[in-house]
Amino acid sequence: MRQVLGAAKRLFGRNKPEDVYERGLKAYERGQHKSAFDLWLAAARDGHVEAQYRIGRLYDLGEGVLRNAVDAVGWYVQAAEQGNRDAQVRLAEMYYYGSGGAKGAIPSDAVLEMLFPNGLKIEQNYEEALRWARAAAEQGAVVAQAMLGYMYASGFGITPDYQEAEIWYRRAAEQGSAPAQLGLGTLLAGGYGGAPDPETAHGWFQKAAEQGNAMAWYYLGSQYTAGLGVEKDSEKAMECYRKSAEAGTAAAQRALGMLYARGLGVPRSIEQAETWLRKAAVQGDAEAMILLGELHSRGDGVQPNLFEAAIWYRGAAELGNRRAQHIIAQMYLNGQGVPKDDLEAARWYERAAGQGDPQAQLRIGAFYAEGRGVDRDYGRALDWFRRAAEQGNPDAGYNIALLHNLGLGVPRSTVDAIDWYRRAAEQGSMLAQFRLGAIYAAGDGVPQDYTEGVKWSLMAAEQGHALAQVNLGRFCMQGLGMAPDYEQAERWFTAAVQQNEAGAMTALGELFGIWRPEKDAERAEYWLNRGADAGDARAKPLLAKLREQQQKTA
Question: In this structure, how many other beta carbons lie within 10 angstroms of the beta carbon of residue 283?
Fold first, then answer.
């Protein structure tokens, strides 16, 4: 009889999915996660949408079962396709950020493959994230609306659409979402999709800040610092930055450190500046690391410590900051705070160069040309020089001209060399201007043209190139490419002498003893003697010639 009743119960008295779900809910509330899982699994298999979401959640959190993002997504999808808003939100998040297994899990391990046949990891999929975020947002999920705004604003995986971003941010912001209020304020302050509106942005930042959003306090501080949408107020900026910094925002900690360093809104305190910058730096803020490096390099209010500075510069360099990479390379090159090491210098210059730093490109190109810290490779040198030249670096263009002139890494070509000298000279390279002036004066690969020689030599001389000053003085003295001008000749020779240029000393002797109509034998002999003492080979023969002339006229 009992068997008959049991069979009848199975046929006519089967528990409804809703009842099973409720029993699972009570078990969960008692902390009996495994019992909850078993009950919800039965209801979920019968199509109960909330049970499907709950099973996904258990897999997501690892409650009652081994944590597994893949199985979580499988159940979330079933619930989401039936319109469960919470499942749609979580799917959007998981696909947007990606989700892996538990720490230490190795998917290739045979045991794990047996336990998790469907895998452990959810790869990022922006298309799926957008699909589910929109589905939840259209059902009124505020979190999804804020997320949708962020996706359209950031453009990760999709084309940025600031108008669409503002629509969704505004919907969520008006319902009190602090992240959406922050996002909407950012759009308005930056003028994305329209004219900047810092005043309205300030209102939204304020709303988000009042809800405890630390980044909103940082943006408010930035507005008060710069006077954007509000009156500039260092004290209010300090107050906002402090609230954000104390909540752990690295950018605010950096800003607070800078205010202490400059004494804006607070009494100047290098100690406080160092403390707040260090807090930001240990969170991985590369700019804070650079500021700490500068603080310890110059010793502004603290004992200079190049070793400490190098630690912070290297930390920022390791994070990919190209400015820090350039600085630490320079420190290794000169042995400042670190052992002198051309190999390390070359490594960091090349990393900065790879990020587009034109000065680093110039430097690493020179390293390859010289074989310094790397194997000599004129081809690679030329490549780095070209990259720097394309960014307008005139010294790189000059170096390319030298390689063409000498046939290093490229076939020797005077035509190409002159072309590059001209490009570099037009961009302001003093060395290229000097070289071009000399080329035209000598007619080396071009028709001799003293007018062009004067033009380029003058540019280099005005930048302080001593040999260009000597050449220009000679053009003035001898009337080459211009009318003779002895006063200008003396001026340029004297400028070169101030740089201890021996040839300029000899040239002054020539000017006073040979070229000027009014000779001054005493001054001529003085400068020729100085030229000879300085090692100029032309000075002694000219001095002998001058003395011979003096004897003839005596």
Answer: 14
